[in-house]
Each structure stands twice: as C-alpha cells, then as structure tokens.
Amino acid sequence: MNSIGKISKQNGRINRRQFLQIVAVTGVAGLTLKVGLDRLNELETIQESRLLMGTVVNLTVITSNANQGRLAVSACLDRMQGLEEVLSRFKRGSQLSQLNLNGRIKNANSALLELIEQSQSLGYLSGGAFDITIKPLVDLYAAYEQQGKGLPPKEEVERLRQRVDYHQIHLVGEEVSFAMPGMAITLDGIAKGYIVDQGISTLRQFGFENVLVEAGGDLSASGEKAPDAPWRIGIQSPRKAMGQILTRLQVADQAIATSGDYMHTFTADFTEHHILDPRTGYSSPELASVTVIAPTCALADGLATAMMVLGVDSGFALLESLENCQATLVKKDGEIVTSDNLRLG
Prior knowledge:
Helix content is 34%, strand content 23%.
C-alpha cells in the first residue's frame, strides 16, 4: 500500500498537511498518460449517464477527439462500477458487506483500505463527529422506520451506540478486523466522493482535463466547461420556501458535496434524520444543510457529513484547519453562513 496512505501522529496529533495528502491520493493518481491537448476551436461535449451507487452518475467530457472521449467515458464508468462492487454496503458480495458479516476480511482491496484510513483520520480530526462505525445505529433507525414504529427507544439507541467507535477498526497489512462484536461500518458518508475522484482520475489518464463527474449531487470538476468559462454549479436549497437553488458556485479543479437533513428524514420537522451524531446517537439540532468545496470529492463528502454533526462554530473550526476548503451552511431557521472568499457564480 502506498506509504502516503498511512496515518502518522506527532505528539498525539495527525499532521494536517499529511491528511490532505492522504485524501488527495485518488485525485492525482495516474496523470502520466497524456493523449493530447484539446484544440479550442474543435471542441465537442460528450455526456453519458449510468445508474450507480443507488443514484444517477453523470459524466461530461469536453474534447476535440470524440472517439477517444467515448472510450474514456466508458472506462470511467466501468472503473466507478467496479469500486461500487467493493465498497457498497447494499451489495451482499462486496468486500464491505463481507467485512460487516464476518467482522474480519483478509486481502482487502486497496480502495477499501484507503477509505478506512481516510475515515479514521477524519474521525480523529473531527473529534468523533465522523465515524464510519455508525452503521448499527443507522440500521436501528431504518428498522423502526420500515416497521412504522417511529423512532427507536432511548435504551436501544444507547445500547447500540456502545458499538460505535472508529478506534476499534484494526488494520494490519491488507487485513481489516473489528475489535468488538456487533460492529459494522458504512462508507455512505465518503465512498461516493471517493468513487467520483476515481472517475476524474480515469478521465485524466486518457488525457482529458476539461471534465465533470457528478453522482447524486456530489461532483468534481476539472478544467473548464469552455475556454475562459468555469463550471457553474447550482446548490439545492434544503427547504422549498427558500426556492429550488440556494446559490451557484464557480468551480475549477475542485469538488463539491452536500449533506442535508431533507435527504432522508425520520421526523416531519427534520429533527431526526439519517445523519446521526456518533457521540449521542441522535441528529444534531442546528443545521439543515452543508455544502463543502474541497480539493477532492472524498474530502468534501466526509467534511459535509462531519460539519452537519458539529454545527456552525465547531464545523468551521474543522474546516479552517484544512487547506483550500470552503463551505456554505444553512441553519434550520434559514440563516445562511458562508466561508470568506467563496466563489459565487
């Protein structure tokens, strides 16, 4: 495994620069193959969509070589689908599902190892607000919802919360194991972003720099949509009363991910929803949505989840400790809080 993916601590702290290097690995891998530069006066737009990861994945490639562009798009979608087969908790044969079933897996795929390491690093930096071992609690809420029982009782929440602790995931070489019985992990808060990053990397390997990969609202944009024209991205509002589009952002060689209480809510007032605080077992009360702009989509995805849990003050403290990251937060009362120097479009 690449040494850049290993966590190091100095005086009990993870080096933030190294953490950014860890999460950026997938965004810069394999840039050595260069097919050729687009000639600006002969550009075409190639677009394709495929159902992956329980959502629609959309690819856009700006190119002067349509045939090569289509080959790149096909390879990109195949790469993303292959990663879904490893990382999805909904596919019974995936390595992640086998890990959750048996509590241990040998010869883990490098993508699974990388994501677990990244997740543990973000868990450490966020003080446990991001924790991929949240799955037992997620399953508890889902079971009560499916049975029409409302919210689970406090004693059940507290019982399963004892199984949530990312420190209890052990990585030894290519083997992953859980230290406690009944543990399970979900990569829902970071895997989609990671797979988007891998899609961008694949397109770059084919020599295409002006591309966009989007999956269920999480996206990464490279280069430009047209000469001197950046990609412009509309961000969905968390409430209908605020209109459909909250704001528009200009993005160049950046990634965007959004988390919100409206995506899967357990209560009509959005008090309890699918983003649970691993430290309490309940949803945090302050925010309706978080949109993060970051160097990679995996980082943006994980940060958006963590900031939903942390709230405004602690969330921005985490964000500002990392380089080249910005965010737009919407409180439940509709107030919008935005990073300085955010490129609105």
